[in-house]
Amino acid sequence: MAALLLGAAGAQTVDLRILETTDLHSNALGYDYYQDKPTGEFGFEYTATLVKQARDEKRNTLLYDNGDLIQGTPLGDFVARVQPLKEGQLHPMHEAMRLLKYDAGNLGNHEFNYGLPYLQQVLSAAPMPYVSANTYKDNGTGKPGENAFTPYLIERKTVYDAEGRPYVLNVGVIGFLPPQIVQWDKSNLDGKIVTTDIVEAARKFVPEMKAKGADIIVAVAHTGINADYQPGQENVATELTKVDGIDVVLSGHSHQEFPGPVYKDIPGADITKGTINGKPVVMAGFWGNDLGIVDLKLNYDRQSQKWTVADSTTSLRPIWDKTAKKSLVTPDPRIARAVKQANEGTLAYVRGKVADLAAPITSYWALVQDDPSVQLVSNAQIAYVKSALADTQYKDLPVLSAAAPFKAGGRSGPSYYTDIPAGTLAIKNVADLYVYPNTVQAVVVNGAGVQEWLERAAGQFKQIDPSKTEPQALVDESFPTYNFDILDGVTYEIDVTQPSRYGSKGEVVNEGAHRIKNLMYQGKPIDPNQQFVIATNNYRASGGGSFPGLDGKNIVLQAPDETRQAIIKFFQDQKTVNPTADNNWKLTPIPGVTLLYVSSPNAQKNLPAGATLLRTREDGFAEYSIKF
Q1: How far is 357 from 578, CA to CA, in rounded Å?
Q2: How distant, in Å, are the alpha carbons of 10, 16, 210, 267 from that of 298?
């Protein structure tokens, strides 16, 4: 239906503000459940204040959430696993968001972590409609059947010009998520959900939306901003700006900020204006640390009854001053009231004792040396898998374990590290060690596969020039730390003077390169043909992270238990946990070279040999030098 002018005939320009939250990950409150203390650095209760302020400034506003909402903190776990939501009961995040009257929500990849029935239960009670255009029901042959969710909406909105005259604007909103969910959550989605390429889905549905009368189209896309495009890839927001008919792209998933300097070199990006290829784009960080704002100036041609975007400005409003380390807004008290019961239940849950802890556990140096925070997870996984396979054909195969440092700073900020004091080890500490609701799985690979697994993980590091005397940054910050798998049960070195064998998408880019040196099993060079069981999680076993040889076909154990449950049982059996690492891996020493390593200022508490604090930066991180 074409837009209708309801008021006087003279006005032709309307200002429209579009607001985005994304990747809230169940952070309803500014509260760190792992450290069990309040914080102003994140939390929807702060973002809600920014929403109110932004609405007060503009009469015409729309508000969308871009997914990864129901998972990410113990609050999300509590209502999904510990004290499950009753039928018809609102998720605590929806209890809070109901107060702000969202226009629509999009699904993210983490929405599927607790299984399809739970997601459907949550959505059935949601206070706003949801869209997802590239998710389909499996038609029984692994091919797309009908849409699994509503692909798009066309919402009839009344908007007003500067003189207060009303118009009808038909706003099309379409949602997208990474097609990789069928790999990442294979155990939950196999045989149930099929995904298609995001851009393909956009090209399919956007013309249909225009034909049905959408005056403008907003793509709420749980996908990051890409420099190039290949069908089926995870991050394609840039390519969506090239789809004819899409007027605005709300991006997410990558936990980054646009407009922002990290994307200054993206082809077609204007980070001053907040556009890519001339179209407004916003990505509002994560955990509610930013509110995304797109301001549109719409022109209405009465003769053709068409709306066009005449101009746009995109901006981000943060809740936290990173330099002064203080809150920029006060929290909306309605949010805390809305989630009070769920929050109190979560706090009681996470404070429950598991075991005694003989020494602190930290992850400040987990990227440069073997670390107890990773070792403990591996020990628990090995114990679980050995027990689960004890009466199977795999009982005599050696069991290794793959575990990664989840909380190691990076894009999540200088407070995103594990730091558990000695004393009582509680549920909250287990959730701190292992932040995802993954389940235990195991795969069988040979010795050659072990080598390639480690080569892929070694992409964590930049290549170091051994001839340079000036300090060189060691860690490639674009590489997610959850893909830096440490394999326990073998010993090895990582030679960072070599180029990475694998590229960012898991493809071989340097065929002759090998960073993994002296790979040994039981003190002898590993046999490339020997079979090993590797304890891991459902994400990795099903192909998450694009590791070579991992596509779900060599899984030999799909356990019903979450990894955190395996860790809890392991700690309970021990009664007293003594966190030590077995130092089964190390960086190959490079004499005369100084490495730069970024961590928390708190990493000073346990400096490794050869490490020195250089400075604390304005963003809250600290820089250290390391000499072998």
Answers
A1: 6
A2: 15, 7, 17, 26
Rounded Cα–Cα distance for residues 492 and 472 (Å) = 23
pLDDT computed for residue 558 by the predictor:
84
CATH number at 13-343: 3.60.21.10
pLDDT value, residue 274: 97
Give the pLDDT band (50/70/90) at residue 486. very high
**CA pair distance 221, 237, nearest whole angstrom:** 7
Residue 381 pLDDT greater than 70, yes or no: yes
Give the C-alpha distances (Å, rounded to integers) separating 60 from 166, 185, 246, 310: 10, 39, 20, 16
Q: Domains of the chain: which residue ranges?
A: 13-343, 352-627
405 near 481, Cβ under 8 Å? yes
Q: What is the pLDDT of residue 305?
A: 86
pLDDT at 322: 87
Helix pair 372-388, 563-574: axis angle to 10 deg: 100
The Cα 79–Cα 527 span in angstroms is 46
Phi, psi of 565 (to 5 degrees): -65, -35
Quick check: do 13-343 and 352-627 share a fold?
no
pTM of the model: 0.83
Give 480's pLDDT tier (boundaries 50, 70, 90). very high
Alpha carbons 445 and 317: distance in angstroms, whole number: 48
- Does the bond joining 259 to the residue before it have cis omega, within 30 degrees of 0? yes
Task: Say whether 497 sits in a helix, a strand or coil.
Answer: coil
Q: State which amino acid sits at residue 344.
A: E
- Residue 118, classed as helix, strand or coil, is helix
Per-residue HEC secondary structure of 126-138 comes to: CCCCEECCCEEEE
Question: Which ranges of 136-275 does DSSP label H, i.e. alpha helix?
Answer: 181-184, 186-189, 198-211, 237-240
**Which pLDDT tens digit goes with each residue over 41-58?**
999 999 999 999 999 999
Distance from C-alpha of 584 to C-alpha of 587, rounded to nearest angstrom: 11
Top CATH class, 352-627: alpha beta
